[in-house]
From TrEMBL:
Coiled-coil residue windows: none
GO cellular component, one term: cytosol
Biological-process GO terms, alphabetical: glycine biosynthetic process from serine; methylation; tetrahydrofolate interconversion
Subunit structure: Homodimer.
Binding site for (6S)-5,6,7,8-tetrahydrofolate: 122, 126-128, 246
UniProt source species: Micromonospora pisi
Source species, domain of life: Bacteria
Main location: cytoplasm
Protein name as it appears in the record: Serine hydroxymethyltransferase
Pfam families, per the entry: SHMT
Length: 422
């Protein structure tokens, strides 16, 4: 059953409650390896479902446009103070609704329509909001896109520097949505200084690893840091922007009133809870275990013939090209889901297939680590993946069903935050 229990909802809307209960069981029974997903603690869940959702709080602590902020102001201040302490930054804004609006605030703060912004190309592992053509950021601004090397699958900072010197962007983004290797924040900072650009580190995927000391921090190198608060950080679906003191006012004005009205106070409280959890030694152990698990899984996948972008991973994320397996990413991901293994199909660098039917899959180790799995289980996970992909090629549904049962049996011994077996 869902934890916390939902008896009032069950009585008021049994149809919806049943769907929620089913989703909780699904999350319990499957190997959840979508790199942007995780499990939050029961404390985060409880904070998300409080009466804080009733309150409007346009403005910032001490400078609100509505009355009745006696307890909201301390909650937001607490979240800010915890973010500043955890990441070691001058300033934090915890109001952005999600990662994309957080990045949009950067554009509003520092750019005018048509200005040049530099980011990793989406097919290389970048994010839509780093200037890709179908995003407002690629339509309203002039995108300058860097790639990864065909040979290594890694960013060549010499090429990035040459491109930046030629194009002179006002803002440079580093980070992305499918980047399995360590981001060289000092190297990007040197390039940004040379061309007079503001450096923005988008650490949405790796924020928890940074907080836990399992990935180098952009603090001291990036002028602005944007991040979601879920993924590896294990908080609610929200976002933060952290800056040096110099850029605090510009960012705050861009978030409110520039882009949005009242913050979601229940989310702010949940962020505060997650940040407190992320300051513990248990969280540091988790962050390092995420990387150890991802690297163990990557090695086991390579042994089974999977071709990995850049050859492996330094963080939580693995990107695999399935061309040599004789199947595209989309049908493979769908078959893996039927086998109890949840991940997403994904473009790989220099992919010859279309984005909605790409060659690759993307997966991560954060949620498995939260459940308590270690390096010991990763060879079995890789074996199930290999067997399921082979079964998909042969339309062997019986094998997929068998694997799903074996996955469920394994996970029955690993508790899930937010769910308790009946």
């Amino acid at each position: 059953m869902h934890v916390p229990p939902i008896p009032t909802l069950t009585a008021a809307d049994p149809q919806l409650a049943a769907l929620i209960e089913s989703e909780a069981k699904r999350q319990h029974d499957k190997l959840r390896m979508i790199a942007s997903e995780n499990y939050v603690s029961t404390a985060v869940l409880e904070a998300s479902g409080t009466v804080l959702t009733n309150k409007y709080s346009e403005g910032y602590a001490g400078k609100r446009y509505y009355e009745g902020q006696q307890f909201i102001d301390p909650i937001e201040t607490l979240a800010i103070e915890r973010a500043r302490a955890l990441f070691g930054v001058d300033h934090a804004n915890v109001q952005p609704y999600s990662g994309s609006p957080a990045n949009l605030a950067v554009y509003l703060a520092f750019l005018s329509p048509g200005d040049k912004v530099m980011g990793m190309a989406l097919p290389m592992g970048g994010h839509l909001t780093h200037g890709w053509s179908v995003s407002a950021t690629g339509k309203w601004f002039t995108p300058v896109r860097y790639q990864v090397s065909r040979e290594t699958g890694r960013i060549d900072l010499d090429e990035v520097r040459d491109l930046a010197l030629r194009e002179r962007p006002k803002v440079i983004f580093c980070g992305g949505t499918a980047v399995p290797r360590t981001i060289d924040f000092p190297g990007f900072a040197e390039i940004a200084r040379e061309v007079g650009a503001i450096l923005v580190a988008d650490i949405a995927h790796i924020a928890g690893l940074v907080a836990g000391g399992a990935h180098p921090s952009p603090v001291g190198y990036a002028d602005v840091i944007t991040t979601t608060t879920h993924k590896t950080l294990r908080g609610p679906r929200g976002a933060m922007i952290m800056t040096t003191a110099e850029y605090a006012s510009a960012i705050d004005k861009a978030v409110f009133p520039g882009l949005q009205g009242g913050p979601h106070n229940h989310t702010t409280a949940s962020i505060a809870v997650a940040l407190k959890e992320a300051s513990t030694e248990d969280f540091r152990r988790y962050a390092h275990q995420v990387v150890a698990n991802a690297q163990a899984l990557a090695a086991a996948m390579v042994e089974r013939g999977f071709e990995l972008s850049s050859g492996g991973t330094d963080n939580h994320l693995i990107l695999a090209d399935l061309t040599s397996k004789g199947i595209a990413g989309k049908p493979a991901a769908q078959a893996l889901d039927r086998a109890g293994i949840e991940l997403n199909y994904n473009t790989v660098p220099y992919d010859t297939r279309k984005p909605f039917d790409p060659s690759g899959i993307r997966l991560g180790a954060a949620a498995l680590t939260t459940r308590g799995l270690t390096e010991q289980q990763m060879p079995q996970v890789a074996a199930w993946m290999d067997e399921a992909v082979s079964a998909a090629v042969k339309d062997d549904e019986a094998t997929l069903d068998r694997i799903a049962g074996e996955v469920s049996d394994l996970l029955a011994t690993y508790p899930m935050p937010g769910y308790a077996s009946a």
